[in-house]
């Protein structure tokens, strides 16, 4: 019997909790500074960071708001993050929570954030509806996540590559798919940017792979892909070894209709 997608997430992130606290791409992204600039938070606001992981967004928001509720599905991940942040960030509260069924009342938060996590959610439409539910009218939602191109073959390649690398991966959506979800939930897009995100292959794959065999499968899958795919994802290799790969990331700010 196949493992429930959410249990895969718990298993994966429980094993790799420390890696997500120290991961360069998660901890030091320029998007953390940009996130504060876009949200322009006020000192009396209450913020919610969904699927906080290593707590990097919660940490960035903490000096600018009254309270941050950092939630995660994985208890071990959340406990590890709390251990790292508790001493210096005393207005962050840690809550075990499912992004698709949040344990908060309607219209609770001025800000909701979710960074590099929605591709792990089995039902993204439920997640977006929950975001809209817990946001105050005119509240802000900022999401950052990996996205697939609109071209079907490129999208299928990226999702399969991610599933081979990370058993807890569910699906990256395209920008247009996300925009439909936002519109259906009454979230108005006010600002966005796309960027190409390069990875050193070995560091990237070792963050989630559990064996050398798994790493070889990911590498073989990438190397056997077409020239079109190699060009789009900027794959570089030497001596039959993948050196770098690049994927698309989207950052978007929405406002809940008043």
Keywords for this entry:
8 strands, alpha/beta, globular, 258 residues, single chain
Describe, in plain words, how this protein is organized in 3D:
- With 258 residues, this protein is an alpha/beta fold.
- The chain has a single domain, classed as Rossmann fold.
- The protein is 41% helix and 27% strand.
- The protein is built from twelve helices and eight strands.
- Strands 1, 2, 3, 4, 5, 6, 7 and 8 form an eight-stranded mixed β-sheet that branches.
- β7 and β8 form a beta hairpin.
- The longest helix has 14 residues.
- The termini are far apart.
- About 2% of the residues have low confidence.
- This is Methyltransferase family protein.
Distance between the first and last residues' Cα: 45 Å
The low-pLDDT segments are 22-26
Regarding quaternary structure, what we see is single chain
Largest sheet: 8 strands, mixed
Helix content bin: 40-55%
Structural class: alpha/beta
| Number of discrete domains | 1
Q: Can you name the CATH architecture?
A: 3-Layer(aba) Sandwich
Which descriptor suits the 3D outline?
Answer: globular
SSE succession:
HHHHEHEHEEHEHHEHHHEE
Tell me the CATH topology: Rossmann fold
Q: What amount of the residues lies in strands?
A: 25-35%
CATH class: Alpha Beta
| Rounded Rg | 18 Å
DSSP, total strands? 8
| Helix run count | 12
GO molecular function: S-adenosylmethionine-dependent methyltransferase activity
Protein name: Methyltransferase family protein
Domain Methyltransferase type: 48-142
Organism: Scopulibacillus darangshiensis
